Amino acid sequence: MYLMESADETRRLLAQQRANDSRQVMMLTGVKPGDRALDAGCGPGLLTETLTHLVGPSGHVTGFDLSPERLAVARARCAHFPNLRFLQANISDTGLPEGSFDYTWSQFVFQYLGDRKSALEELVRVTRPGGKVVVSEIDGLGLQNWPFSDALHEGTLRIANALATQGFDLYVGRKMHREFIEAGLLEVRVHLLPFYVSAGEADTRLVRDWETRFAALESVAAPAFGGKEAYQSHCQEYMRMLADPMGLKYAILLVTEGTKP
Ligand SMILES: C[S@@+](CC[C@H](N)C(=O)[O-])C[C@H]1O[C@@H](n2cnc3c(N)ncnc32)[C@H](O)[C@@H]1O
Predict the structure, then answer these.
(1) pTM score, whole prediction
(2) Which helix (H) or strand (E) is 179 found in, with range?
C-alpha cells in the first residue's frame, strides 16, 4: 500500500518536485549526456523530465511507477520526448532487462517500502556494471522546527510510529549508506542537501504540502491519538507552528550513490 495515496497526491508531488533542485543532485551523482537512465517510482514524472534533459537526445530515459493515475499524468506531460517512456511496474520486480541502465535514480520511494532489500537488489540488477545507483530520501522529516513544543514533538513521533507499522521509515535516509554497501555497491557516498527551509511563516506550497500529508495519513495515524478529533487537533497545532513568523522549520535530504561492480 502507498501510504500517501489521495486525490491530491499528484498535485502535491508536482509542486514538491518543482521546489527542489534535483537537476544539481543528478549532475552531482554522475548522470551524463548519452546515458540510459531509470527513474524508479517516478510519480507524475517531473524528475523523469529533468533526467531526459540531462541525458540529452543521444540518451534514453525510462520512468516507472505503481500508480496508473500518476503515470497517465506523466505520459501526458512528457509526450513530446521521443526518448522517454513510462511503464507500470513494482520496484521489487520491474521485469526490466539486467544491466540495461547507466544511471538508476529513485527519490522518496524507499521510505514507503517494507522490503527495501529486494527493491535495492532489483535496482542493482537492472544497472550495468560500472553504472550508478542513486537513492534520494528524507531523514527525520517534520521534526526539525524551533520553537517546537514537547506535545508537537511527541505527536509527530506518534504519527511516525503508526506509519512504521505499515512499513514507512521516517529515518530511511541515514540507513541507505549501510544498505548500499550490503547490496555490494562500491564507492558509496552520501550527500546532505536541503529539502526545505522556512525562516518565518511557511509559504503556501509548504502549508499545502503538510495539509495534504496530514489528510492522507489520517486513517493510519488517527487511532494512535485515540480518534480523528485528537489527531486533527494535533495537525491544527502543527499548522499553527508552521505559520509562526518567528519560527524556523527545515528538513534535509540524504542522497546516497553507489557504483555497481
Ligand atoms: C512520494 S512519491 C515520489 C515520486 C517521485 N519520485 C518524486 O521524487 O517526486 C512516491 C511514488 O512511489 C510510488 N511507489 C510506491 N511504492 C512503489 C513500488 N513498490 N513500486 C513502484 N512505485 C512505487 C508511488 O506510486 C508514488 O508515485
Answers:
(1) 0.94
(2) helix 172-182
189 alpha carbon – ligand 1 mean position (Å): 23
Query: What per-residue confidence (pLDDT) applies to 20?
Result: 60
Contact 23, 1 (CB under 8 A): no
Task: Record the cell numbers describing residue 30, joined without a space.
Answer: 554522475
Residues 256 and 107 sit within 8 Å (Cβ to Cβ):
no
Q: Which helix (H) or strand (E) holds 134?
A: strand 127-138
For ligand 1, is residue 65 a contact (CB within 6 Å)? yes
3-class secondary-structure state, position 184: coil
Query: What is the CATH code for 9-259?
Result: 3.40.50.150
Mean pLDDT of 178-202: 97
At 8 the pLDDT is: 74
Would you state the cell numbers that stand for residue 106, as one nine-digit string? 529513485
The response to whether residue 110 sits with its C-beta less than 6 Å from ligand 1 reads no
- 36 pLDDT more than 60: yes
